[in-house]
Amino acid sequence: MPRPDACSPGARGSIDDPTLNCLHPVGNELVRHWRSLRPGDGFPSEDAVDPNAIRAILPHILMIDVVHNEPHNSFKFRYRLAGTEVTRSYGAITGKFVDEALRPAARERYVWVLDRVLGERLPLRNIGYAQLIEQRWQISEVVVLPLVDGDDINVMIGSIIRWYDDNPPPTVQEAWTRQAG
Question: Computed over its alpha carbons, how large is the radius of gyration of the chain?
Answer without folding.
Answer: 15
